[in-house]
Specification:
mainly alpha, Rossmann fold, 4 helices, 2 strands, 7% strand
């Protein structure tokens, strides 16, 4: 797929820069949704954690004991689900509270995974 290129190079600094940019975008998005929940009178908490998302989410559910967990579904196809699994499916099976999964079709997924 890269026949017209001599090489592809990304330095550790490039990756660190991308990681920092993605973190900032994620925090802004999280802040937006928390503010929207509060504006609508919905009690909401949000924080960032490191680790495997499905494990971290279920651990935090056990710690915080929310009334409800809402997770998104990226619309992975059956092949991807078998090999990757999904965070939402794991949470439905293992979270110690009711879980609502917001689904979408695979063709509705954003081009950039950070926007997912």
């Amino acid at each position: 797929g890269f026949d017209d290129m001599d090489s592809i190079y990304a330095s550790p600094t490039d990756f660190q820069s991308m990681k920092q940019r993605d973190k900032i975008r994620g925090i802004h998005l999280l802040e937006y949704f928390v503010n929207e929940c509060h504006r609508l009178g919905i009690k909401c908490e949000a924080w960032t954690k490191h680790g495997d998302p499905k494990e971290v989410i279920c651990h935090e559910v056990k710690r915080v004991q929310p009334d409800l967990l809402v997770v998104g579904s990226r619309g992975l196809g059956p092949f991807q689900r078998v090999f990757v699994g999904t965070v939402s499916e794991f949470c439905v099976k293992h979270a110690e509270c009711p879980v609502i999964t917001i689904k979408r079709k695979a063709n509705e997924a954003p081009q950039d995974p950070i926007d997912d």
